[in-house]
Design goal:
about 140 residues; mainly alpha; about 75% helix; transmembrane; transmembrane helix
Length: about 140
């Protein structure tokens, strides 16, 4: 059973992760043409479609995290997304300039760390302070 203090900490973790994705999704939406150009520069095939998918994943995923809706599945999807964006967007092994390479390394490992946070949410679930928590039976046992 999830204790109230644990649920509060899980809620804070969900909000912290969601802010990053809501902000990123909003910036992609507001600067859509620039984001498509960035994806083209990285060699992403069908960049205009990829931009739509990335923006939707970040905005809808962020909203789902805040509300705690299907948190385990959403968190797993966002963990995969964070790793994919690390590999595609922060490919430090292809960067030759030292300062740019160091920046890419930092962002790559930041994405890996974020994926780790999402994997923890995949295991813990949303806690009681969530839509998932309101749907869970109130008897004994583990809750998501």
């Amino acid at each position: 059973m999830t204790r109230p203090a644990d649920s509060f900490i899980i809620f804070i973790a969900r909000i912290a992760l969601a802010i990053l994705f809501l902000w990123g999704g909003a910036m992609k939406l507001l600067g859509y043409a620039g984001f498509v150009g960035y994806l083209h520069s990285k060699g992403v095939p069908y960049a205009s479609y990829g931009a739509i998918v990335a923006t939707a994943v970040e905005l809808l995923g962020g909203i789902a995290l805040v509300l705690g809706v299907r948190t385990r599945a959403v968190a797993f999807l966002l963990a995969v997304y964070a790793i994919a964006t690390a590999i595609l967007g922060h490919d430090f092994w292809n960067v030759t300039q030292a300062a740019a390479q160091q920046d890419a390394v930092i962002h790559f490992w930041k994405n890996v760390a974020i994926a780790g946070g999402f994997l923890l949410l995949t295991v813990t679930g949303a806690g009681r302070a969530s839509v998932d928590g309101m749907r869970a039976p109130r008897g004994g046992g583990l809750r998501g």
